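[Meeting: bench + compute handoff]

Bench side (C.D.) handed over the final construct sequence. Compute side (W.E.) agreed to return the predicted structure before the next meeting so the bench team could plan truncations. Sequence as handed over:
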Amino acid sequence: MASVQAAAILTSSVVTKNGITTAFFPPGFSSASAAACKRDFCARSLASGARATLTFDPPPPATKQKKNTVDPSSPDFLPLPSFEQCFPKSTKEHREVKHEESGHVLKVPFRRVHLSGDEPSFDNYDTSGPQNISPRVGLPKLRKEWVDRREKLGAPRYTQMYYAKQGIITEEMLYCAAREKLDPEFVRSEVARGRAIIPSNKKHLELEPMIVGRKFLVKVNANIGNSAVASSIEEEVYKVQWATMWGADTVMDLSTGRHIHETREWILRNSAVPVGTVPIYQALEKVNGIAENLNWEIFRDTLIEQAEQGVDYFTIHAGVLLRYIPLTAKRMTGIVSRGGSIHAKWCLTYHKENFAYEHWDDILDICNQYDVALSIGDGLRPGSIYDANDTAQFAELLTQGELTRRAWEKDV
């Protein structure tokens, strides 16, 4: 057996470079030992009458880097396999629930898995979204009637937390309750207490609402996004389609390359799950990557731009305060958060407080207007066990708690 393994190693280690055949051997394995093992292997094979042929598949052709999108308004989208092809033993079903206040009948999707033999089928949570729809057209605007009805009522605020605090069960809450197989009143109660969120920008009408919280199913986020050197609008939409097909509950667009606005627009119009962003990334691109050129006005305009498109939640590193930054000086791995490091650099350059913290109430007003949820980014999180639980980390956590309470006061 040892001879067979050695011969296989020897044979598979022969390569050709510039027309010269060269053999590579593992450490401590000389060419003489390899030759002896190979002779022993061949002798055993001939004696037993066995014939063995080792063949190797040719290397796959090098994939060409896809060119950047030529026309952002008319991308050349990639084909996607159907739901049936991805899940040959499943069917996409819907259960209907009626929203009593509005009379709207909600069709909540789920995946029914059919087992072999006489075994009963079972139902799974489904995130794949509407099928067989061209990305050029975009997904159906599921929530349009829901949002229009509430705006016609003239309510001063439109956030899910606001309605939950008023004792009102919205269509989104009912939808989430049906997906999770829970009582709608329980969903409302958890949202009202700040223990759960339903990321659902009123501009993201294609959304199939979902809920995130400690008493609900575990949710999975998928990060996507282009860069200055790779990917395109077509590929980013393709990522969204595949991610949601395989069960991603939310996606984050972390694009930093060309056509950020257009890329996000196409993603939102083709995403049935909540879409999040880190707005400081696009704000930084607006100033050509120079953190020192950032300011509150640029950041504010970026928030409004993204909220208008329908972004469901923002990650904002408002807990990185000027006085906390020196606390990271003795760290082994420093500040590992990209957003945190951008804010830290700006603070140190001007020796001023983080503008996201200084304008937190303004940020909350924007989020309240569009019903955008907030993820308060941990910009001073440790990047290693060595740095874990240090003063900088806990200082930021205290500030994040303060910012959370202030957000609840404005129903965000």
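W.E. noted at the follow-up: The domain at 197-409 is CATH 3.20.20.540 (TIM Barrel). C.D. will use this when planning the next construct.
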